[in-house]
From TrEMBL:
Catalytic activity: (2S)-2-hydroxy-3-oxobutyl phosphate + 5-amino-6-(D-ribitylamino)uracil = 6,7-dimethyl-8-(1-D-ribityl)lumazine + phosphate + 2 H2O + H(+)
Pathways per UniProt: Cofactor biosynthesis; riboflavin biosynthesis; riboflavin from 2-hydroxy-3-oxobutyl phosphate and 5-amino-6-(D-ribitylamino)uracil: step 1/2
Example of a GO cellular component annotation carried by this entry: riboflavin synthase complex
Cross-referenced Pfam families: DMRL_synthase (PF00885)
Enzyme class: transferase
Protein name: 6,7-dimethyl-8-ribityllumazine synthase
Amino acid sequence: MGAGLPKTPEQFHKIPHARLAIIGSSWHSDCVDAMINRAQNELLALDVKPENIAIHKVPGSLELPLAARLLFEADPELDAILAFGVVLKGITSHDEMVLHGVFEGFMDVTERFGKPVINEVIGVDSVEDAQKRSGDNHMNKGVEAVYATSELLHWVNQLKG
């Protein structure tokens, strides 16, 4: 089970009709790609059709909110977006500004479109911390993103009846 997740991946809601996009930043691509790959595999296990999972990469984490907005505009049938990035803490406050900008951007996109953007842009102290959260283990952020996506889409479907 994922660290702190209330369910195991086998207990996640199936979402076979979901249309999803996965977006990731290009910085620390080994870690970001590992999170994306894990999310994609977990989504396939929830019966999401491969053709309903679009994967996009952008230069950095600050570009992710724009990518999310453009994807929702381009595909009104898109149900949710899962976003991945790694922001490494440095000696300046740049990392805090990036993380804050990404968070605010995703909130704006979510409010504008009424659809979830699952934020797995992680702020870490070291590359080793990022590797722990993207490794082939229970801490991979791809699992957490899929959990949030399946729970939210299941809840939305219940609301719509």
